[in-house]
Amino acid sequence: MSVDDVLVIGGGVVGLSIALELAESHLKVHVIDRGRVGQEASWAGAGMIPPGEIHFENESYRKMARLSSQMWPVLSDRIHELTGIDNEYRNCGAVIVTPSSSHREIEQQAWNDQGIQTEQLAASDCQKYQVEQSACEGKAYLLAGQSQARNPRHLNAMKFACLARGVKITEHQPVRSIETKAEKITAVVTDSARYQSSHVVIAAGAWSKEFEQSLHVSIPVSPIRGQIVLLKTVGQLKQIIEQKKRYLVPRRDGYVLIGATEEHVGFVRQNTASAVRNLIQFATELVPSLNEAEVEKCWVGFRPGSPDKLPILGRLEPWENGFIATAQYRAGLSLSPVTGRLMRQLILNETPEIELDDFSSSRFS
Ligand SMILES: Cc1cc2nc3c(=O)[nH]c(=O)nc-3n(C[C@H](O)[C@H](O)[C@H](O)COP(=O)(O)OP(=O)(O)OC[C@H]3O[C@@H](n4cnc5c(N)ncnc54)[C@H](O)[C@@H]3O)c2cc1C
């Protein structure tokens, strides 16, 4: 049996980003997924890539968000070159509508403190972004550095980029257990095979908790369901529009995603009438011209969330060759380039360029 250098459990955007980084460093990498890669949360997300982070005060987290956003254009070009697939990464900007003018001031200050430009919008400016004027009145600002990528295309590009760099991808094989001996992980077991690898990375998103028992560690990750409604429009929106945790994300061809709910309902894979109604109401109140749009479809995804909503990233103590990268919550896509890079540095025994102590899995034990 051939032994891989690194085996990654889970082929979402996190697992594939780690795999590509390691393969580009000439390691023999194997990704195993229980379904097709890139079909879960990473497919379902809205694809927003903010220029940084203001909602969590953790400094390492903020550094990760800023660095990751800077890595996106380079990564997008690289996977385009390897695969010919355009992930539709682009800097589109965002109109942010806050609950009050004092919230706006606080948020703008938090961005500006990190060197990220914002611009207050007058109610009359909002019209040119299609936003209802009364929603703006002193409460809206422009975040020009906001970008986006189109999730299904990005995931497709990541899969084929991995294959082009020699990553082995095994689909439709759920990992059932992980075997250990002394301080080491010795095998990863599916229904049809036992795989051996020098290093094992758990990147199974909202399902990562499944490995707690085999590994005798605490991985308190739970699914946070998000519902999205997709509209087909005449293309009137050019910028992302955000209000608290809800948003409108316009794609280049006129489709607009309305997202998203945050629900603690386990892995229940269904849209609900009340959520769909609320999302459409939110969208049409903010942008009345969307009343004429066609409803294309709805879907759900399961964000991986930890108790403190920060990622779990790093070595998986006490296992010498065990690693974990999960719980990126609402930011797993935007943080995926930096996550891949930091995990590569750790696995190659280099000092990660951003301090990862605050994301250690042992903070929950
Ligand atoms: C509605 C919604 C909107 C979002 N919007 C954004 C956004 O705008 N920007 C942003 O940055 N983030 C966003 N997110 C969050 C982001 O999508 C997630 O944080 C990210 O996709 C998590 O990636 P992942 O690879 O960890 O998980 P996933 O994509 O869920 O991948 C996990 C993989 O592990 C596999 N797996 C699970 N168990 C096993 C097993 N036992 N054996 C083998 N394989 C297994 C699964 O099949 C899956 O392919 C959003 C999420 C949702 C749901």
Number of domains: 3
Number of strand segments = 20
CATH topology-level fold name of the largest domain: FAD/NAD(P)-binding domain
Mean pLDDT: 97
Largest sheet: 8 strands, mixed
Ligands bound, unique: flavin-adenine dinucleotide
**Order of the strands making up the biggest sheet:** 6-7-5-15-16-17-14-18
The top-level CATH class of the largest domain is Alpha Beta
SSE succession? EHEHEHEEHEHHEEHEEEEEHEEEEHEEEH
Helix content: 25-40%
Give the class from helix and strand content and strand pairing: alpha+beta
- β-strand percent reads 25-35%
Computed CA radius of gyration, to the nearest angstrom: 21 Å
Instruction: Report the total helices.
Output: 10
Give the N-to-C terminal Cα separation.
Answer: 35 Å
**What is the general shape?**
globular
Task: Explain how this protein is built.
- With 365 residues, the protein is an alpha+beta fold.
- It has three domains: 211 residues, FAD/NAD(P)-binding domain (3-Layer(bba) Sandwich); 51 residues, no CATH class; 79 residues, D-Amino Acid Oxidase, Chain A, domain 2 (2-Layer Sandwich).
- 29% of the residues lie in helices and 27% in strands.
- The chain contains ten helices and 20 strands.
- The strands form four sheets. Strands 6-7-5-15-16-17-14-18 form an eight-stranded mixed beta sheet, with helices on both faces. A six-stranded mixed beta sheet has the order 9-2-1-13-20-19, with helices on one face. Strands 3-8-4 form a three-stranded antiparallel beta sheet, with no helix packed on it.
- The longest helix has 25 residues.
- 50% of the residues are buried.
- The model has no long low-confidence stretch (mean pLDDT 97).
- Bound molecules: flavin-adenine dinucleotide.
- The site of flavin-adenine dinucleotide has 44 residues, from helix 1, helix 2, strand 14 and strand 18.
